[in-house]
Design brief:
The protein is an alpha/beta fold and about 400 residues long. The protein contains 15 helices and 16 strands. Strands 4-5-2-1-7-8-9-10 form an eight-stranded mixed beta sheet, with helices on both faces. Strands 13-12-11-14-15-16 form a six-stranded parallel beta sheet, sandwiched between helices. Strands 3-6 form a two-stranded parallel ribbon. The longest helix is centred in the first third of the chain and has 26 residues. The protein is globular and about 65 Å long. The chain starts with 5 loop residues before the first strand and ends with a helix.
């Protein structure tokens, strides 16, 4: 464990982001034993004008004008910095040399704000934890001179068109610059190992207390109780980019005696799919995050029917932890990331695989298997995840000594 240090967390998600954030969870865990400065990404020129009517941009403009504070205390050991700097929007630039020149200017402006906050907070000998900011992060080690620089990979960003354009050549340089690279997927860890010997898989955290039915009473919702069993269920966003409608349709057709229950918002493709015409498929719509454990508890088998593609291959599926923490037999697509869970799940690739594996999961479930799943799922707390990050930092420091 690392205690009593100063840690700067920067990345591609702001503290005031409206969705859940690994980086925020990690920062909050860091702050239990260290002083932490969480730095929001700076406002860029295009966003300033495209999103000028949003509260997000209005807030940053007030900070820029000095009307709102740039440095806010979130908790006893945790501060959030809104950079006053406006960076240039440069991803449209075709010339690599010109892009890199402007990127360095952006980094100088950005780190100047961070340096001012460091001085006010009297941070010393600080660690920088960079969550996927592969462009601005290029020059952070040089400009801020941290005692240790960690790069965190939790998504295959270079498969995204925005990041791919310059990230394919720049992210490897950043990985080589960092003292240590930590990853929530074996796929990303192996990618990082092409450029540094210090690229490690640290897993993923989860708010396990929400899914621990030994600590809190979790009751099955009334709308689920009225659905015929067995219930084969999924919770989460129904995205046609990530989930296989073909697998769900085949499950429903092959086994009309099973109830396929889908809990979460759906995109337009899902909304227009034949699934809505099937009598044994139930769309329950969006639910508050705090209600999801109640629905999972009512499933007989939990599923994650992902497509196997660049968007999913290495992506850590946090919902698997949630399913397992409640002891549920779980069937999922055999992505690289799912290797981490293979001892506790049933993995398949085709619609036919899913029918066979769901039946196997139903037939072979036992109290002993439920206990083992719970223990595995509940072990993936944010505390344990951050301890793995600490261990990697200490390991590299000992190696360098």
């Amino acid at each position: 464990m690392i205690k009593g240090k100063d840690i700067i967390v920067m990345g591609i998600q702001a503290w005031d982001i409206e969705i859940g954030s690994n980086c925020k969870n990690i920062a909050a865990e860091f702050a239990k034993n260290n002083r932490v400065l969480y730095v929001n990404p700076p406002m860029d020129r295009i966003s300033r004008y495209r999103e000028k009517h949003t509260e997000k941009i209005k807030k940053r403009l007030r900070v820029k004008k000095g009307l709102d504070k740039d440095l806010i205390r979130v908790d006893d050991n945790l501060w959030n910095l809104y950079p006053k700097t406006q960076t240039e929007s440069i991803n449209f630039i075709k010339s690599k040399m010109v892009f890199d020149w402007f990127n360095r200017i952006n980094a100088k402006r950005f780190t100047k704000d961070i340096a001012h906050a460091i001085k006010r907070l009297q941070f010393k000998d600080y660690i920088i934890f960079n969550d996927s900011s592969m462009f601005l992060g290029q020059h952070v080690k040089e400009l801020l001179k941290p005692s240790f620089y960690v790069y965190y990979m939790r998504d295959y960003l270079t498969k995204n068109p925005y990041w791919k354009k310059n990230g394919v050549r720049l992210e490897p340089k950043l990985i080589q610059t960092a003292d240590c690279v930590v990853n929530n997927s074996t796929l990303y860890a192996e990618y990082g190992q092409q450029f540094t010997e210090h690229s490690y898989m640290v897993g993923q955290g989860c708010d396990t207390s929400l899914f621990n039915d030994q600590l809190r009473k979790i009751t099955i919702p009334s709308d689920l109780k009225s659905i015929p069993k067995p219930i084969i269920g999924y919770v989460g966003f129904l995205s046609s980019r990530r989930l296989s409608i073909a697998i769900l349709e085949h499950l429903a057709k092959a086994r009309p005696d099973w109830s396929i229950v889908l809990v979460g918002p759906e995109d337009d493709v899902f909304n227009a799919s034949k699934l809505h015409e099937m009598d044994n498929v139930y769309f329950l719509g969006s639910r508050n995050a705090s209600e999801l454990p109640n629905y999972i508890k009512g499933f007989d088998v939990a599923i994650n029917p992902q497509l196997i593609n660049d968007a999913t291959m290495g992506n850590y599926p946090r919902k698997i932890d949630e399913y397992l923490a409640l002891g549920k037999p779980t069937v999922a697509s055999a992505t690289k990331a799912m290797d981490y869970f293979k001892e506790h799940t049933y993995l398949g690739k085709t619609p036919e695989d899913y029918v066979e594996l769901v039946q196997e999961a139903l037939d072979k479930n036992t109290p002993d298997l439920e206990h083992k799943r719970r223990a595995f799922g509940l072990s993936h707390s944010w505390e344990n995840n951050v301890n793995e990050i600490y261990n990697c930092i200490l390991k590299v420091k000992q190696h360098s000594a």
